[in-house]
Amino acid sequence: MPATLIVGLDGTGSGDRAVAYAKKLANLIGDCELLVVYVIEWSPYTFQTAEENSERHKRREEEIVMATERVVNPAVSSLLADGIAARGIVRHGDVADLLNSVAEEENAEQIIVARTSEGGFVKRVFGTSTANLVMHASVPVTVVG
Amino acid sequence: MNKIFKFFLPALALLSTTSLSLAQEAGSLDEKINSGFALATGWFVNFIFAPFPGTSFPWIVMWLVIAATVFTLYFVFVQFRLFGHAISLVKGDYSDPNDAGEVSHFQALATALSGTVGLGNIAGVAVAVGIGGPGATFWMILAGLLGMASKFTECTLGVKYRNEYEDGTVSGGPMYYISKGFKERGLPCGKYLAILFSVFCILGALGGGNMFQANQAHAQISGIVGDYPGWITGLIFAGVVFAVIVGGIKSIANVTEKVVPFMGILYVAAAVVILIMNAGQIGWAFGQIFEGAFTGLGIAGGFVGALIQGFKRAAFSNEAGVGSAAIAHSAVRTKEPITEGVVSLLEPFIDTVVICTMTALVIIITGQLTINPETGNYIVEGGKIVTATGASGVALTSAAFASAFDWFPYVLAVAVVLFAFSTMISWSYYGLKAWTYLFGEGKGSELTFKVIFCIFIVIGAAASLGPVIDFSDAAIFAMAVVNITALYFLMPIVKRELTSYLARLKTGEIRKFTSEPISGESPAE
């Protein structure tokens, strides 16, 4: 049974560093599959207008398609091109919670994410989320600098 | 936001420089709008609030109360039996993790609440206790508790019969469940009733969801910065609402939707602090509420007057039976329509039983209503209780909070403006859904309604409280006439859904996603 490594992406250059490191680990391990995960930050407890609610299902589908096409598929394609077994998934929710729960579902050996110094939304998502993940993950976490 | 500032700053500067020279003409403009409005809507108001022959009891109030009682009995006190389950649903215990990213029960409830929590809770309650005395609070709470069953019925149907379009958007509400539900049951006239509801929904959106909000927001602002023509407030509000609903500047709505809940929490927290500061008076205040409920304590119309005011304000505030919430709740993602009905029964509880009661208690406990020390009854002049500061409506609530915290009127003014704005945004959507049901979806049709909606904001801010509040009540209650008629015919469908859901909940077929899954079964919401 191959080892599974989870690679958390945030759609920026720092995600590429996580993929590059995961690729190196996969080559060292040998029989290994990389699962590329992109989490769209979402909470069921936010406040929205009635109009936003009525369009939410449509927006959700668009978000999944966009994340798959722009972030996950290119990463998975590049891994496959290098001869590494890889899959990709997109989920909505809390980044730290979901990366951990996906790791548990897949019996993953570890989670690899990148530290980011970029600001704004990315910092909010992957800055604090990385810290949360490191503190609460039930599998080892590697944070790529 | 830059676009807004570029547009509004010069507009505000222009308004401030011209307002003095226009003040005289503006006064007459306000008067013209006011008298024209009263003339145009008087017949409608008179019909909706017509009393039973030989009494002063409006038939519409009895209509709402009887309906809420019927639903309460028909669903065997569902509002109490499933209260705990409603909280579990809102917490997401029964939500499928695979539906993450869709509209949650919490979001649907919060959106519906942002349309109902507003001036009804602040100004409306003040009007109720100002006319009906403390006893109105008792009837208001009772109406709120009963109204939970009405809300449950309509919101279940709202989800069950919503339209789901190919592009993934949804449209729901009474107009859809009336036409589809009647057809399913083989009943005639569903289409006509749906059209009638839509017409009243548009009027309700323009009245209670718009003019009343603009009117009271202006009253609150002018109470702080000094009197000035209402149309100025109306124009500014109309401009901002236009920017959101037509200009698509969602950042304003997003900020409002985030700030409003905190304003609501702040409002309740301030009320709780005032109650704690006057803890010794709480027993007396409840005594006044119970005594006034059955004797009237000298108010005009006695206990019937208190009852009418209480029921009217509760219905206006939580909109149970009106049908508006069914539009808001219909966007939720669930496989079981009944779950949204269960969640929605929390809405009248939060709106009326908690927030409205807080407002009423603060007004009573801070001594805003003057009592004749000799008789123990309230001093009434012109049908209204004489207040300590002479204020009524939102100004009365403001005075009550100011007696404990002198800075609170400023917070309240911000809260009122934000509540008014948030309610307008919600009702612009409800009205739009009714409008598109009648005239079809399309950019031209939608733009026409949105422009009309903005014009009515100006009219609402300029008109005086009397005609506006009468028309607002009448339009919203007219929605309830059609909606409740339909609910009587469709309630067996809800009963069937409820029985099936409860049976599956009992057998464990439906269970919490947070619990350990049982092998061989997949949990369903």
Descriptive notes:
The complex is a heterodimer of chains A (145) and B (525). Helices cover 52% and strands 24% of the residues of chain A. Chain A contains five helices and five strands. Chain A has helices at 13-29, 50-54, 56-81, 95-105, 120-136; strands at 3-9, 32-41, 85-93, 110-114, 141-144. Chain A has a five-stranded parallel β-sheet, sandwiched between helices. In chain A, α4 (95-105) crosses α5 (120-136). The longest helix of chain A has 26 residues, at 56-81. The two termini of chain A are 30 Å apart. The mean pLDDT of chain A is 85. Chain B has a single domain, classed as Amino acid/polyamine transporter I. In chain B, the strands form two sheets. Chain B has a two-stranded antiparallel sheet. In chain B, strands 3-4 form a two-stranded antiparallel ribbon. Mean pLDDT of chain B is 84; it is low at 1-23 and 515-525. The chains are: A alpha/beta (145), B mainly alpha (525). The interface between A and B is medium-sized, with 25 and 37 residues.
Short summary:
The complex is a heterodimer of chains A (145) and B (525). Helices cover 52% and strands 24% of the residues of chain A.
The count of domains of chain B is 1
List low-confidence stretches of chain B.
1-23, 515-525
* SSE pattern of chain A, N- to C-terminal: EHEHHEHEHE
CATH fold-level name of chain A? Rossmann fold
**Overall mean pLDDT score of chain B?**
84
- Multimerization state: heterodimer
Supply the helix-strand structural class of chain A.
Answer: alpha/beta
Helicity range of chain A: 40-55%
CATH architecture field of chain B:
Up-down Bundle
| Molecular shape of chain B | globular
The H-level CATH homologous superfamily of chain A, spelled out, is HUPs
